[in-house]
Design goal:
The protein has 214 residues and is α+β, with helices and mostly antiparallel strands. The chain folds into two domains: 2-82, Glutaredoxin (3-Layer(aba) Sandwich), CATH 3.40.30.10; 89-192, Glutathione S-transferase Yfyf (Class Pi), Chain A, domain 2 (Up-down Bundle), CATH 1.20.1050. The chain contains nine helices and four strands, in the order βαβαββααααααα. It has helices at 12-22, 42-45, 66-77, 89-115, 123-142, 156-171, 178-188, 191-200, 205-211, and strands at 2-7, 26-31, 55-58, 61-64. It has a four-stranded mixed sheet with strand order 2-1-3-4, with helices on one face. Strand 1 (2-7), helix 1 (12-22) and strand 2 form a beta-alpha-beta unit. Helix 4 (89-115) packs antiparallel against helix 5 and helix 6 crosses helix 9 (205-211). The longest helix has 27 residues, at 89-115. The protein starts with a strand and ends with a helix.
């Protein structure tokens, strides 16, 4: 049995969503953020010292990091669902975007969030904004002419991207990024996305960032 340690308003929603898409059996263990600091609770640290969401347990083994978890679940429970065939150009694109979102794009977005405490004319804020927009432009162009990040098929990279887009939505006017905005709205219409929210609660990132001073 897969156990998902699910933190409210967090990336672990993507893992619930993926498991719903795969129709895999799993159990949710819920954790709530500290109401004062919005940080992970000690109950999650007791599962893994990193106190990160998502965290999963399978057969007594604990695993963190969303990209690794996604790939593990696809390999162990997915068969040939939600990923391109191995060794194809589509597989290259799948791995590129799945890793780019977390490995290259997320940190500049979070740095921009931190830079919001500076005045708009401050070079630190302007530099963070420019760096972030360079990464967002790559993703935006990657969706040109396609409803999914791997053209012609829905993959787990779309789920990772949708959560990133929800982070963006909490901080930025999404009309500046029409391809990503449209992609997010399409992903939210998937039945598995809705089932994941019904079981784990709404993603709620706007409220989270508001509580953190965004």
């Amino acid at each position: 049995m897969i156990v998902v340690h699910h933190l409210s308003n967090s990336h672990s929603h993507v893992i619930l969503w993926l498991l719903e898409e795969l129709e895999a059996e799993y159990k949710i263990v819920g954790h709530q953020r500290d109401s004062r600091t919005a940080r992970s609770p000690e109950s999650l640290r007791a599962v893994h010292p990193a106190a990160k969401a998502p965290t999963i347990e399978v057969d007594g083994q604990t695993m963190i990091e969303s990209t690794g978890i996604i790939l593990f679940l696809l390999e162990a429970y997915g068969g040939y669902k939600l990923r391109p065939a191995a060794g194809t150009p589509e597989a290259m694109r799948f791995y590129q975007w799945l890793t780019f979102i977390e490995g290259s794009a997320k940190a500049p977005l979070m740095m921009y969030f931190q830079a919001l405490r500076f005045p708009a004319e401050d070079p630190r804020r302007q530099g963070a904004d420019q760096h972030m927009r360079q990464k967002l432009a790559l993703i935006e162009s990657g969706l040109d002419g396609s409803e999914t990040i791997v053209p012609g098929q829905v993959t787990a990279a779309d789920f990772q991207l949708a959560f990133f887009e929800e982070l963006m939505e909490a901080l930025l006017p999404m009309e500046q990024w029409p391809n990503m905005n449209a992609h997010l709205q399409r992903m939210r219409q998937r039945d598995a996305y809705k089932r994941a929210e019904s079981k784990g609660g709404p993603v709620g990132l706007k409220q989270l960032f508001a509580s953190m001073g965004a």
